[in-house]
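RECORD TYPE: protein structure
NAME: Calcium-mediated lectin domain-containing protein
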Amino acid sequence: MSVGPVSGNGIAITLPPGKTVFWTANVQASWAQYVQVRDFANNPVFQANGASTGGHSPTQIGQGTFVASGTGAYTVYLGYNNGQSWSQVMWEEMTLNIGSQIYSSSFNFISEDGADQDFNDTCLTLTWFNSIG
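PREDICTED:
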Protein backbone atom coordinates (compact mmCIF):
# COMPACT_ATOMS: atom_id res chain seq x y z
CA MET A 1 0.00 0.00 0.00
CA SER A 2 1.30 3.44 -0.88
CA VAL A 3 2.43 6.07 1.60
CA GLY A 4 0.73 9.43 1.57
CA PRO A 5 -0.21 11.84 0.53
CA VAL A 6 2.67 13.55 2.32
CA SER A 7 4.50 16.82 1.74
CA GLY A 8 7.18 16.73 -0.94
CA ASN A 9 9.44 18.78 1.34
CA GLY A 10 11.78 15.95 2.31
CA ILE A 11 10.88 12.25 2.08
CA ALA A 12 13.47 9.98 3.71
CA ILE A 13 14.41 6.76 1.90
CA THR A 14 17.24 4.23 2.15
CA LEU A 15 19.19 2.89 -0.83
CA PRO A 16 21.76 0.09 -0.54
CA PRO A 17 25.29 1.57 -0.54
CA GLY A 18 27.37 0.58 -3.55
CA LYS A 19 24.41 -0.10 -5.84
CA THR A 20 23.93 1.83 -9.09
CA VAL A 21 20.59 3.64 -9.02
CA PHE A 22 18.78 4.52 -12.26
CA TRP A 23 16.44 7.52 -12.07
CA THR A 24 13.92 9.14 -14.36
CA ALA A 25 11.62 12.13 -13.83
CA ASN A 26 8.54 12.74 -15.97
CA VAL A 27 5.91 15.46 -15.80
CA GLN A 28 2.39 16.18 -17.06
CA ALA A 29 1.91 19.75 -15.90
CA SER A 30 1.85 23.32 -17.16
CA TRP A 31 3.58 24.57 -13.98
CA ALA A 32 7.33 23.95 -13.81
CA GLN A 33 7.87 20.87 -11.64
CA TYR A 34 10.91 20.35 -9.39
CA VAL A 35 12.68 17.18 -8.25
CA GLN A 36 15.81 16.91 -6.13
CA VAL A 37 17.50 14.04 -4.28
CA ARG A 38 20.06 14.75 -1.55
CA ASP A 39 22.46 12.32 0.12
CA PHE A 40 23.11 11.65 3.82
CA ALA A 41 25.38 14.74 4.02
CA ASN A 42 22.67 16.93 2.43
CA ASN A 43 24.59 17.22 -0.86
CA PRO A 44 22.47 17.30 -4.04
CA VAL A 45 22.78 14.04 -6.00
CA PHE A 46 20.60 15.26 -8.87
CA GLN A 47 18.00 17.88 -9.64
CA ALA A 48 15.53 18.19 -12.50
CA ASN A 49 12.89 20.78 -13.29
CA GLY A 50 10.59 21.65 -16.14
CA ALA A 51 7.05 21.72 -17.45
CA SER A 52 5.23 19.69 -20.07
CA THR A 53 5.54 20.44 -23.73
CA GLY A 54 2.25 22.11 -24.63
CA GLY A 55 1.16 22.30 -21.00
CA HIS A 56 0.01 18.74 -20.30
CA SER A 57 1.83 16.32 -22.63
CA PRO A 58 3.96 13.66 -20.91
CA THR A 59 7.51 15.06 -20.86
CA GLN A 60 10.73 13.64 -19.45
CA ILE A 61 12.64 16.32 -17.53
CA GLY A 62 15.61 14.22 -16.47
CA GLN A 63 17.23 10.83 -16.20
CA GLY A 64 20.53 9.35 -15.14
CA THR A 65 22.40 7.10 -12.73
CA PHE A 66 24.35 7.44 -9.50
CA VAL A 67 26.03 5.06 -7.08
CA ALA A 68 24.45 4.99 -3.62
CA SER A 69 27.06 5.84 -1.02
CA GLY A 70 27.60 6.49 2.66
CA THR A 71 24.85 5.30 4.94
CA GLY A 72 22.36 4.87 2.09
CA ALA A 73 20.17 7.60 3.60
CA TYR A 74 18.66 9.92 0.98
CA THR A 75 16.01 12.62 0.99
CA VAL A 76 13.63 13.21 -1.92
CA TYR A 77 12.03 16.60 -2.68
CA LEU A 78 9.14 17.09 -5.10
CA GLY A 79 7.57 20.46 -5.75
CA TYR A 80 7.03 23.22 -8.26
CA ASN A 81 8.11 26.82 -8.87
CA ASN A 82 11.78 25.77 -8.68
CA GLY A 83 11.33 24.18 -5.26
CA GLN A 84 9.67 27.18 -3.63
CA SER A 85 6.38 25.28 -3.21
CA TRP A 86 5.94 21.63 -2.23
CA SER A 87 3.61 19.14 -3.85
CA GLN A 88 1.54 16.47 -2.15
CA VAL A 89 3.16 13.10 -2.84
CA MET A 90 2.16 9.45 -2.79
CA TRP A 91 4.98 6.93 -2.91
CA GLU A 92 5.88 3.29 -2.50
CA GLU A 93 8.85 0.93 -2.69
CA MET A 94 8.41 -2.20 -4.80
CA THR A 95 10.89 -5.06 -4.40
CA LEU A 96 11.29 -7.97 -6.82
CA ASN A 97 12.61 -11.09 -5.15
CA ILE A 98 12.60 -14.89 -5.12
CA GLY A 99 12.57 -16.02 -1.52
CA SER A 100 15.09 -13.89 0.34
CA GLN A 101 17.07 -13.00 -2.82
CA ILE A 102 16.31 -9.42 -3.92
CA TYR A 103 16.93 -8.82 -7.62
CA SER A 104 15.67 -5.26 -7.97
CA SER A 105 13.86 -2.56 -6.07
CA SER A 106 12.15 0.65 -7.17
CA PHE A 107 10.82 3.71 -5.41
CA ASN A 108 7.95 5.40 -7.26
CA PHE A 109 6.77 8.90 -6.35
CA ILE A 110 3.78 10.70 -7.90
CA SER A 111 2.85 14.26 -7.07
CA GLU A 112 -0.05 16.69 -7.06
CA ASP A 113 0.70 20.42 -7.41
CA GLY A 114 -2.83 21.83 -7.25
CA ALA A 115 -6.46 21.22 -6.43
CA ASP A 116 -7.55 18.64 -9.05
CA GLN A 117 -6.08 15.71 -7.04
CA ASP A 118 -5.11 13.65 -10.10
CA PHE A 119 -1.57 12.95 -8.79
CA ASN A 120 -0.08 12.95 -12.29
CA ASP A 121 2.02 16.14 -12.24
CA THR A 122 5.40 14.51 -11.57
CA CYS A 123 6.50 10.88 -11.57
CA LEU A 124 9.95 10.12 -10.16
CA THR A 125 11.29 6.57 -10.27
CA LEU A 126 14.49 5.33 -8.61
CA THR A 127 15.50 1.73 -9.46
CA TRP A 128 18.45 -0.44 -8.46
CA PHE A 129 19.43 -3.99 -9.37
CA ASN A 130 21.35 -6.51 -7.29
CA SER A 131 23.86 -6.91 -10.13
CA ILE A 132 24.88 -4.75 -13.07
CA GLY A 133 25.93 -6.05 -16.48
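COMMENT: The two ends are 31 Å apart (CA to CA).
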